[in-house]
Amino acid sequence: MTTAHPPPLTGATLRARWEEAAPWVAGLRDVIDERPAAQVPGWAQRRGWAEWLLGVDDGWLAQAEAQGAWALPAPPGAPPDLLDLWQALHRLSALPPLLAETPQAQAQRGVKARKRAQLAAFGQLAAPLAGRVHRVVDVGAGHGHLTRELAQALAVDGLGLEREVRFVEAAAGFAPANDGSVRFQALTLTADGPSPVQPQDLVVGLHACGALTDTLTEHAARAGAPALWVSCCLHKVPGETRAPRCCPAHVAAAALTLPRDRLGLANLTQGAPGVEASLPENLAARARRVGLWVLLRDRGEAVPEPGDAMRGLNRRLAHRPFAELAAAALAGRGLAAATPAELAAAEAEGARLFAAERRFTLARRPIGRLLEVFINLERAVWLMDRGYTAELGLAWPLAVSPRNVMGRAWPTE
Question: Domain of 169: which CATH number?
Answer without folding.
Answer: 3.40.50.150
